[in-house]
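WARN no homologs supplied; continuing
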Amino acid sequence: METARKPAYKDRLGRVSVAVWANPTKNGGEFFSVSFSRSYRVADGTYRDSSSLNGDDLANVIRLAESALRFIESKRSSGDAAPSAAE
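OK structure emitted
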């Protein structure tokens, strides 16, 4: 059985969360993918996650994006990750 991959970084603000995933490159470096999700409760009381966000979530998305960016930049400045293709 394969073990579940875990994000390199996670943060949450209210019902919105961000996950940063480290991905290996062919040359031994790494690049990062970022995903956002919003939790909500269904009728039976259990929680689910959705990648669809509400307008009211945007302020928290911005704060979480900044948090994720700081994490990625710290990894790059420490030499732990390859620069992005945009650099």
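The beta strands are 9-13, 16-24, 30-41, 47-50.
OK
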